[in-house]
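Action item from last meeting closed. Structure (288 res):
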């Protein structure tokens, strides 16, 4: 047994999802009240994307596993065989295990939490990233932070510039980011001299290309302060953290049976776990 085999067995033992089943299903919530009261806005907006030039092939492979699951059952040979040649399912399963065991649930609101609860959320997020990187099939490529501060008479100028900070995000998805920030700007404008903070926490992106599968997390926070009166001032402070992780897809078939014995998360399951629920009353846009 190789050192990598031992690492995978250890990771699956330490991260036993059967002990954390209580947080697998995200809870829905209503953001409307958080935009109407007099307290700062602190909402969790999170979503996922599958992009890249081989995304269609990855989705087809995922659907093969899904069809086998529906036809033959969870622990059937058909599911195991289709999963072995579906690295995307390997990645989404590992990510979902890390999320569950870390008690990281980005679908929960932060607007009415106390300081201790907010600290716990940050701890859970950091633990989630740590557990992802501890898996022997995951390798950190880069991790960096970008900051942006601007005093302007126009929210639009700041929002356009902020959206350009996101690397690897399509123009279509940048528009979703702009829409969410615009909603926050409108809330800020209604509260002169009050800080309004939204945690865009976070945009999860799986990039499927010919040579590799990459997992990227864009976690960001933005504070907008509006000072009305004779001279209108709009100040924006924005922080974006980017983490890029390579998934060793060529080794997935070696460990697929062991991982699937513990847990299985298809693309839809992964999206459900990391996406803020949409509702007709939700004012801030979900980046899905």
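Sequence:
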């Amino acid at each position: 047994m190789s050192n990598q085999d031992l690492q995978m067995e250890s990771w699956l033992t330490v991260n036993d999802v059967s002990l954390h089943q209580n947080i697998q299903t995200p809870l829905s919530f209503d953001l409307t009240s958080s935009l109407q009261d007099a307290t700062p806005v602190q909402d969790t907006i999170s979503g996922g994307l599958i992009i890249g030039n081989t995304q269609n092939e990855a989705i087809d492979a995922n659907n093969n596993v899904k069809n086998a699951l529906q036809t033959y059952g969870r622990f059937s040979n058909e599911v195991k065989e289709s999963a072995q040649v579906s690295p995307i399912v390997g990645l989404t399963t590992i990510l979902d295990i890390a999320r569950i065991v870390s008690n990281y649930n980005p679908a929960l609101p932060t607007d009415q939490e106390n300081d201790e609860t907010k600290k716990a959320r940050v701890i859970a997020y950091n633990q989630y990233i740590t557990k992802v990187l501890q898996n022997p099939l995951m390798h950190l490529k880069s991790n960096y932070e970008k900051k942006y501060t601007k005093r302007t008479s126009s929210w639009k100028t700041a929002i356009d510039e902020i959206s350009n900070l996101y690397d690897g995000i399509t123009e279509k998805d940048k528009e979703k980011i702009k829409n969410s920030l615009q909603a926050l700007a409108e809330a800020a404008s209604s509260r002169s001299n009050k800080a309004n903070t939204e945690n865009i926490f976070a945009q999860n992106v799986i990039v499927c290309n010919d040579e590799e599968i990459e997992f990227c997390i864009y976690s960001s926070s933005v504070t907008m302060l509006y000072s009305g009166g004779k001279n209108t001032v709009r100040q924006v402070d924005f922080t974006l953290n980017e983490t890029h992780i390579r998934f060793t897809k060529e080794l997935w078939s070696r460990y697929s049976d062991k991982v699937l014995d513990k847990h299985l998360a298809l693309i839809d399951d992964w999206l459900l776990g990391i996406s803020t629920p949409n509702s007709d009353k939700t004012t801030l846009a979900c980046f899905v």
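Note appended to the action item: Residues 23-44, 278-288 have pLDDT under 50 and may be disordered.
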